[in-house]
Design goal:
InterPro entries: Pectin_lyase_fold/virulence (IPR011050). This is DUF1565 domain-containing protein. It contains one helix and 23 strands. The protein is mainly β and 275 residues long. It has a 23-stranded parallel sheet that branches. The protein is elongated and about 65 Å long. The mean pLDDT is 93.
């Protein structure tokens, strides 16, 4: 294992690019405070080794990488104490495939572009976020984290727009902003989850569709009128804020919906069973 210390050199961008390209399995890249690569010329790379990137500051804003990372099959990547953003169209800031594993601690991953590509995309991958942020720049319709047959563990993490397809999420003390969608037999299990959705109006704050399951304890909505759509899915939550009678549910007859072990009022009159 080798350690590369980057940031003291005048050509630190070239040094970092070479360190990534030439790294071997298990190498560590330490980054001194500063901005690496420019918004006009960001760095795009595919990582095919097990690597660790560590910012040498407890303030993640002190180390900024204008980069796009693609994590190759079965590789393990660790990011700590830094900010990664991609300022150009046509690429995810971070994508992971085919058994790749991504771990973050005290990291911000953003995408400051005009298009609506996902900030992070995972297919058959695993993510673990701790004390981190996943942002979509100024956009409110773009997806911050899109999971396809993947898995996420998040602790004390904020995610702008979480989308799951055939995926599992385990969330603790975390925030989802704008919108949260589960589709195609996805599962979410949580403890102390806050939905911040008042920033921009969406059709629904939370959508649980097509065999998906949403289950947990302590769910908070900041919206004045939280909207939840459950279609052929399961929703089982204890302790909500606001109270259950202030949540606006719509669900079909095949869905299993309970709040504090009681079925809430269904505003979807077309799917209310006739007595």
């Amino acid at each position: 294992m080798s350690k590369f210390i980057i940031g003291d050199q005048e050509n630190k961008d070239d040094q970092l690019a070479q360190a990534i390209v030439n790294a071997k399995d298990g190498d560590v890249i330490e980054l001194q405070p500063g901005t690496y690569f420019t918004s006009e010329s960001p760095f795009i790379c595919t990582v095919r080794q097990n690597l660790t990137f560590i910012g040498k500051s407890s303030n993640k804003d002190n180390i900024k990488l204008n980069c796009s990372f693609t994590i190759g099959a079965k590789n393990i990547i660790i990011f700590k104490n830094l900010t990664i953003t991609f300022p150009a169209d046509g690429e995810n800031t971070l994508s992971a495939y085919d058994g790749a594993e991504v771990y973050t601690d005290n990291v911000c991953i953003n995408r400051e572009t005009s298009d609506n590509w996902d900030t992070i995309y995972g297919q058959n991958a695993s993510f673990s976020f701790k004390n981190s942020q996943i942002l979509t720049g100024m956009k409110t319709k773009a997806i911050g984290l899109s999971l396809d047959n993947s898995q996420i563990f998040a602790d004390n993490t904020s995610i702008q727009f979480l989308f799951q397809r055939k995926s599992k999420a385990y969330l603790r003390n975390s925030i989802v902003t704008h919108e949260f969608k589960l589709r195609q037999h996805s599962e979410t299990y949580f403890r102390n989850l806050t939905m911040v959705s008042y920033v921009v109006p969406h059709k629904n704050d939370l959508t649980v569709h097509s065999g998906s399951k949403f289950q947990g304890q302590d769910l908070v909505f900041t919206s004045n009128k939280p909207k939840l759509r459950i279609f052929k899915g399961d929703f089982e939550v204890n302790n909500t804020n606001p109270e259950p009678d202030q949540l606006h549910f719509k669900f079909d007859n095949s869905s299993k919906v309970s709040v504090d072990d009681k079925k809430p009022f269904n505003e979807d009159h077309q799917n209310i069973k006739k007595k």
